[in-house]
Write the structure tokens for this entry.
Amino acid sequence: MADSVTVNSVSTTSPAPEPTRRDFLYIATGAAAVVATGAAVWPLISQMSPDASTLALASTEVDLSGVAVGQILTVKWRGNPVFVRHRTEKEIKEAEDKPLSQLPDPATDQSRVKKPEWLVVIGVCTHLGCVPLGHQGQYDGWFCPCHGSVYDTSGRIRQGPAPRNLDIPTYKFTSDTKILIG
Amino acid sequence: MTGHSTYVPKSALARWFESRLPLMGFVHASFIAYPTPKNLNYWWTFGGIATFMLTAQIVTGVVLAMHYTPEVTMAFDSVEKIMRDVNFGWLLRYAHSNGASMFFVAVYVHIFRSLYYGSYKAPREVLWILGVIIFLLMMATAFMGYVLPWGQMSFWGAKVITSLFSAIPFIGDSITLWLWGGYSVDNPTLNRFYSLHYLLPFMIVGVVVLHVWALHVTGQNNPTGVEVKSVPKDTVPFTPYATIKDAFGMVCFFILFAWFVFYVPNILGDADNYIRANPLVTPAHIVPEWYFLPYYAILRAIPSKLGGVIAMFSSIAIFAFLPWLDTSRVRSARYRPVYKVFFWVFVACGIGLGYLGSQPPEGGFVIAARILTTYYFLHLLVLIPLLGLFERPRPLPASIADSVLGSEVPMARRAAAE
């Protein structure tokens, strides 16, 4: 153990001491320990992410052939309801004709559908998450009984506290009568 | 031994905190400045390894508990789901199941180190008894944990061991009914075992804290069995010397652990546990995990049901009395040439009993188990007390420092003579 301290009375700065073997070993061991700890901790964090069986339910196929005109089918997708509405001519026209300036969350009907007779929306009110009731409300769209939000036949918010239109999930037509959600 | 801290808080914030809760000074005194005998060998690293394994089991266990379902129709499938669907689930499951075995490896080495060097002798009797309590809690925890996957061995192992309580006269059947929560091992049993399996490790943590506290009061034993006489001459500060030695020991231990987890994760287990539990079909051979085998052999060696139960529980309970059974005034087997031989015979007896526990209780196996069980109790109840009285120990070194430096002196003399 070095106990003595030499006082350098000369004002010139001495050159920095060479890193020793011990310094190298300390740094190398420390770096290895950090990497090893990271490798050990990663699985503990990753295991909380959705597992393979949950990811398998990430997509749902829906057969549209049984849904009559005017009917709303509710399916479960990623734990939430999705409304699949086979819209009537009247409902389509009402949705397309509405001017954007009167909408709290402006969006054209064409931007919300792929084929005009099929409306696919997530059935969760954008206010606080209740499931709205179909064929209800002033515009014959949906009505949320929790706090009175009213949606139209394009699933757009018209009245009430909900800030956004009903969300549109990612979906595509795999055939004329089948869609794949998610 | 604590109270050697020279810790002085460096910043104003540190001073503020330290005056309200002297945590940093406590850590410094207990794990940094703490005087450690300078002659400890690698057998002394297994206490730290065992503590790490306890932490590892708790961490992997808590994480597995996020995915496991403790219900008889769903438990087996939830474990398979962990193995197949959960991210890194296979790794966590194998780490936990093999981790239990590794925990017992570390604890058995730790116990046998104490038996060889006399670490259980005065003034470390309470330290030793706390260790016996930790061992008992570990066995209870491991037993209940093994039931959770609800395989054939889980169920039948639970059935056999819980049925032991029916051997108790008069109240045995009532106790067993109460334990089961029903007329047999079933859903209530599984549920309560899950709850207790989660609870007991935290009780182990509490007793480990007492164990380390008791250790720090007396200080470590060392390979000579001669107590520390002069702190500057006989000891070194725990950090960096013991810290690095423990870390190196741990890394070597992890290599063995990793070999099991990644290459042979099922080698220590029983294939029958990959079959769903069936209360109507008993497996051909009911065998507990390897760390219970010696006690299983003792249980089956005694022909009477109650006698077997008493023998099995006594075989562990006796160890609590070891500090008083051992009459020797010399601690370390290094200086006890006769005891040293019997120590290794005892080790062989333990391994032999373990092997016999894995075999069907028939023919030659039964005779061998009876012989080894007899030796087991003879060793503890007769040999150890008598050896202390009649053995002539070798001369002890004057101090730890002398023992460390002494071997160099004859060599220097020899070199000078040449």
